Amino acid sequence: MPDSRTTSVDQVRRALSYALGRARGDLADAERELDTALARLDRLGTVADEVPVRAARQRDARLAEIDELYATKLATLTRQAAEAGDREAPGAAGDGWDEWKPTPAERGQVAPELRIGAVRIARTTPVPALVPLLDRAHVHLSTLPEAEDAATARQIAAGDAEPAHAPGYAETGDRVVTTLLLRALGTAPPGQVHITGYDPEQLGGGLAGFAALANAGLLTFVGPGGLSGLLDGLVDHIRRINEKVLAGAYTSLRELARAEGRRPEPWRIAVLLGAGRKDELTPHEQAQLERIARTGVACGVHLIVRGLPMPSGPAVERVRTGTGGRVRVGGLRGLPVVLDPPPPARLVTETSTALARRAAEGPAPVRFADLLPAEFWRESSAEGLVAPVGEDAQGRPVPVTLADYPPHALIAGPSGTGKTNLIYAWMGALAARYSPGELEFYLLDFKEGVSFARFAPGRRDPSWLPHVRLVGVNVNTDREFGLALLRFLGEELRRRADAAKAFDATKLPELRAEDPAGHWPRIVAVIDEFQVLLNGRDAVVTESVNLLDDLARRGRSQGIHLVLASQDVSGIEALWGRPSLVAQFSLRIALPKARKVLPEQNTAADTLPRHHAIVNPDSGAPEANRILRVPPAGDREAWGSLQRELWTRRPEGSLAPRLFDGDAIPRLETAPDFVSLAPGADPAGRRWATGMPVALLGEAIDVQARSARLALNRAPGRNLAVLGTRADEACAVLNAAARSLAAQYPDGGARFSVAVLDASAALAVDALHGILPPDRTAVYHADNVTALLRATAAGLEDEGDEPHFLLLYAVDAVTPRLARSGPAPAQRRGIIPPVGAHAGAAPKPAGPDQPAAAPTGLDDLRRILTAGPEHHTHVLGWWRQPGRLRDDLGGIGSRTDAIGAWLALDVHGSELSQFYPDGRGPAWYPRPWRGLFFDRAVHRVAEAIIPYGWT
Ligand SMILES: Nc1ncnc2c1ncn2[C@@H]1O[C@H](COP(=O)(O)OP(=O)(O)OP(=O)(O)O)[C@@H](O)[C@H]1O
């Protein structure tokens, strides 16, 4: 009994020691109890000798009690240790072979210890036996002396059945090697473990099943004379990692991986299988081996050595193999371990084949998530904007800067090479680092498509990117929108410069320091396919280039940054003719096969692989090239989840960005200017700020969502002529005008006379039913419009203050008839003055031989146009040709002042010469669903607008 107790106590002491690592506190308690128990045992023994009979019984009872207590404690501890062991070696590091599959660690995750078997102690739960390898230790395998092997066999739990096949020493060693390699391969990302085998005696040594890895260069063998070279190579590699990768910033790759969330270098495992002769190593080899043993682990270089001497050291785990799958592991204080069964041969070969295939596919793609910081919105943009857009070949994120230098970027690459994707990646990385108070985006895409629309709320996804203030898509025909953005930025530049001056500051960082409560985010304006804006030689190009020049030169100090992207920047004469402007774009980003964005002598883009980019912050100087891999960032899922996350954090009161879609027909009912007119809106908002009625004609092509508007005050010329043959568009303009005017008189107070003079307008006029006040609206047709005009012309002086709006659809369809009509039935008040004469001018007296001519319907129209506005009677008419309007006004040479505002549709600029101050007409090339609006009271140059839809 005492003998077996002593053995048991010994065993337990070791088991407790093992569990120490996992359950230190419990173990300490247990050990104290154990010491107490042993002391008590001693005392009991002594007492027993003295009082043999009675005490012997008592002693046995106490010992049984202690045994029981002790067994319970031990069971608890081993169970805890087993659980801890399972946690330490999750997935491929510890799973049984039935369910085993690779579970590659996430980047930056620490490599786990690897299970080889289980610690067996009698009457307790088996505890996983873990061996440290990747980033932790080297492994040295040696053979247990026979006596120890036999003792181990005895120590193994009595209940454990001997396996049917009891492997010998060599096979047990092979099993350890195979198990460690397979688990290491399964826990690392594919391709991240490179194995080298040194097996001069062709022992196999557990390496044979991994042969498929050789196809992908993940397994190499060195021949019998190759040990020296292998060790030298590993030492060189360690030196390189220390100098170039860790570079004094980190003490190990493990630390680097933890800090940066990436692992730039694969692990290298050298399996050295000697034949057991001590003298096999030369002194040089021995020295190199020692070096590697000492310094390799920090650099991801690991040795599994068998049959060769291995220097001792803290980073060497010793595994002594016996027979029958039994081993003793140094780190487990020599406790007896029963190896797990060997991994099935098929599992080894299939895993190796799959890993080789994955590795041959190239490095794991960069992930968009890797560009994002651990915590959002922590950066200040006072000094600039810095964010990565991809990773270099070593997996290091490549930061890209927009600041004083470089202030602006040019991005180029042929179609499909990933410009849009790169912009997404960059925007995501920036938006995650800088809050909307630090950064604002203005985005414009001149190519067809809706690539930037995702940043604005959509039907499927109501979220938006809170940094985005403006999104313009499908603007390929609306260069005016690009110009509007540049004008807006120009204004902002002026505002910032003025504010800086007021604080005696010159730059944004100084302004921010002086005015900490101010809202001075950096602005990034991205214009994709910007060459569309600069194509041609018209006024839009001239003004755009001038504005670009100003923004590029002065924007840098005021935190306004331009990012211009294009498929081909080579053809943009407007830019290349201005080298000083181009020089401001010192950040150059070239995608594969990009032309001209880098200087001629910098040809790196020609050989750039797919999904890579060159970032050059030094105007393309070859030595400043940084080549990087760009992650896919266009994926709606990846992007969507970031956007939603940022959206939920948006500051209170944050407004959705303005979305301008050149392909969409705007709606009057949602136009902010209309909403503020509509009944129920703030009364102060109605009838515009000035109290005069305002007709909204269409959406202005502008950064702000505003309406093109015509103020109908009591001043000469306050009429509108819509010109062109496109009935839908002309009706849309007149309908919007009518609806917006009606909205300003919800309780009556204005008269509407609507004349439908061509069938093409019938539907549009029908659509006004229920919108115009029924009791204040009269509809006329060709057969009674003369009466309308007669009555209106005759009654102008009697109109009083009530406004009267005449909406004449296709008026030119009846003017030939109007010219013949008369005499009028109503009271004549005199002769109609010629158009252009002042309304109050005296009528031309009739000569004695000339009876007073009866005014025709056309005369009445002219009088209304001329004299009406001062009596608050306004014509909003549609003429299908400018020539007809001119004729209706009196023909060539007659004055046109009665038409103070016009909106041209499919009319060429030259046809408008008579109605334009420069006498030559505006530069206007008609395009579908666009009009050119000119109000001589407010415009210097005509502005393009988009009619509101009326259906
Ligand atoms: N780094 C990348 N990784 C994976 N896929 C990419 C990457 N870059 C681009 N792509 C994919 O390639 C396709 C073209 O990319 P993208 O639209 O960004 O090109 P582009 O240069 O903007 O083309 P275009 O000028 O015709 O609009 C897209 O399907 C995109 O998802």
UniProtKB/TrEMBL annotation:
Recorded coiled-coil stretches: 20-47
Alphabetic keyword roster:
ATP-binding, Coiled coil, Nucleotide-binding
Q: Where is this region: Disordered?
A: 81-104, 820-856
Keyword S-adenosyl-L-methionine tagged: no
Pfam families in UniProt: FtsK_SpoIIIE
Return the Low complexity bias intervals. 833-856
Q: Which domain of life is it from?
A: Bacteria
What's an example of a GO molecular-function annotation for this chain? DNA binding
Domain FtsK, residue spans: 395-600
Summarize where ATP binds, as residue positions. Answer: G413, P414, S415, G416, T417, G418, K419, T420
Q: Which PANTHER family did the record assign?
A: DNA TRANSLOCASE FTSK, SPORULATION PROTEIN RELATED
What this protein is called in its record is DNA polymerase III delta prime subunit
